[in-house]
Amino acid sequence: MTQAINIIKQEHRNYLALLSCLQHLVADMKGSDPRAHCVLFHAIVDYIESFLDCYHHPKEDEYLFRALRKRHPDSEELIRRLEHQHREGHDLLEALKAALKDLEERGTAAVPRFAQAARAYQAHQYDHMRAEEMEVLPLALRHLSVADWQKIDAAFTAHDDPLFGDDRRAEYRKLYSKIVRMAPQPYGFGIKQGG
Predict the structure, then answer these.
(1) What is the C-alpha separation between 85 and 115, in angstroms, rounded?
(2) How many degrees, rounded to 5, is the angle at CA 106 between CA 101 and CA 112?
(3) What is the pLDDT of residues 99-155, one digit of tens each?
(4) Distance CA 181, CA 189 (A)
(5) DSSP character at residue 161
(6) Domain ranges across the chain
(7) CA distance 190 to 99
(8) pLDDT band at 174 (very low <50, low <70, confident <90, very high)
(9) Closest Cα partner for 128 from 15, 5, 1, 28?
(10) How far is the CA of 94 from the CAs of 12, 27, 89, 109, 171, in angstroms?
(11) Distance CA 34, CA 191 (A)
């Protein structure tokens, strides 16, 4: 297996864990003031937007999908679908951000909208990652050359996941700490803001 595939799969696992945490936090809002969770929700959304939309998806599009499209033209329809899903994911993230703003402004009355936006985003991302791992990666392993993989590996090893990686950048170390501190147990330490 190539370095890039290992990185893609690890980033997917990290992302799934974060989305699972988001869903549990949404479920845990019942009976409490949802605005108490907004800082943590913002931290999660900021990470998704800054890492996945700026690093992970563009590298898949530019390196992995481009190479597969060139080496295996029959994959065109699949690649177009996945590229479209990247754009849809961005739109669903924007809807989640709008629902979060509504949650901050209206509190409990906005919980159903936020919960629905979080579920829609999570379901979309699960389907998308499943298609990448079950359809694209096996095709790439069969059809890409050693030279293709060297370029793809170089692209994916040129960055480290700023939240979950070994070399977290300062702003993401703060975000990671905030998520772990603020997420209720068993997802994190459950320390109240300012605690």
Answers:
(1) 21
(2) 80
(3) 999 999 999 999 999 999 999 999 999 999 999 999 999 999 999 999 999 999 998
(4) 5
(5) -
(6) 3-182
(7) 24
(8) low
(9) 15
(10) 20, 21, 9, 20, 22
(11) 16
The one-letter amino acid code at 102 reads D
Tell me if the pTM is above 0.85: no
Mean pLDDT for the chain? 84
Residue carrying the six token digits 């790439």: 140
Farthest CA pair distance, the chain: 56
Torsion of CA 177, 183, 133, 152, to 10 degrees: -10
Identity of the amino acid at 77: E
pLDDT in tens, 9-38: 988 888 887 888 888 888 878 777 888 888
The CATH architecture of the domain made up of 3-182 is: Up-down Bundle (1.20)
Q: In Å, how far are 14, 42, 133 from 76, measured between CA atoms?
A: 28, 36, 16
- Residue 37 burial (10 A CB sphere; 0-12, 13-18, 19+): buried
